[in-house]
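PROTEIN DESIGN WORKSHEET
SECTION A - STRUCTURE
LENGTH: 270
TOKENS:
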């Protein structure tokens, strides 16, 4: 009886230690507990030869049930393209995630979830319409996570469908594939600061952009990124940081490969 009770307590503590982790660039199956709240500030940066973007986003997530979370993301963008600068609120994002499978064992949790995200056309109605896309876009995906005391594994597959503008322009749809490994080199208790090191392989497969039924040259193709990162937590506060480094690309026509992409996230669970 005593051994069973100790095992149950250890299982609960282990589950609490791994519940809050998700990849940086990929997607994970993590959801909040019922009526839980997560607030985060995300800073994204990306650069290629002809453009540079910085996006600051406020994200709020609410746990509807123990397996279903939903939230909203409010981004503010700074963009430089071909020497022209613009800044302002970009497209508002609404998202939800439902965890349909979970398996717990001592010091280990496996789970899977479906993901749905809608990028609204709100950026196009601001004073700086260049920050919007003039379309409503949708993302649907599937994520799997293996979260242990030492090792982590995630995999996700997402499909992004881009809408068509009033002028008949449809940016190419995308398939996003993410494979992630993580390791905790120093086992800590819940009250101590905790660090997990991550390495992601991120693939993007883009269709060509279409204008009134005709493909546009120099659009579409595939890119792969190798992305080292870190996930640092202290009780209900977390910092995530990562850098996407392009390792190979096969882009259609004459296109510039991304120089880099970077992300920094501050999370808080009140």
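SECTION B - SEQUENCE
RESIDUE ASSIGNMENT:
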């Amino acid at each position: 009886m005593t051994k069973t009770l100790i095992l149950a307590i250890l299982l609960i503590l282990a589950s609490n230690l791994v519940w809050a982790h998700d990849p940086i660039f990929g997607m994970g199956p993590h959801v909040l507990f019922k009526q839980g709240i997560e607030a985060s500030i995300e800073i994204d940066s990306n650069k290629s030869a002809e453009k540079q973007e910085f996006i600051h986003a406020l994200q709020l997530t609410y746990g509807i049930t123990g397996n279903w979370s939903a939230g909203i993301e409010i981004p503010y963008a700074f963009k430089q393209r071909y020497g022209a600068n613009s800044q302002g609120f970009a497209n508002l994002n609404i998202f939800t995630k439902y965890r349909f499978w979970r398996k717990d064992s001592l010091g280990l949790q496996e789970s899977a979830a479906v993901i749905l995200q809608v990028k609204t056309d709100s950026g196009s109605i601001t004073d700086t319409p260049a920050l919007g896309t003039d379309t409503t876009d949708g993302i649907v995906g599937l994520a799997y996570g293996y979260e242990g005391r030492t090792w982590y594994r995630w995999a996700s597959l997402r499909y992004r469908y881009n809408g068509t503008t009033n002028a008949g322009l449809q940016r190419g749809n995308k398939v996003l594939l993410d494979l992630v490994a993580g390791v905790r080199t120093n086992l800590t208790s819940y009250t101590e600061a905790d660090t997990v090191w991550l390495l992601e392989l991120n693939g993007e497969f883009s269709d060509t952009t279409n204008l009134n039924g005709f493909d546009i040259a120099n659009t579409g193709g595939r890119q792969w990124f190798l992305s080292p990162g870190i996930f640092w937590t202290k009780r209900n506060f977390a910092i995530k940081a990562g850098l996407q480094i392009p390792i190979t690309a096969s882009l259609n026509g004459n296109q510039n490969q991304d120089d880099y992409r970077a992300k920094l996230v501050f999370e808080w669970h009140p």
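SECTION C - NOTES
Helices lie at 2-18.
The chain is about 5% helix and 60% strand.
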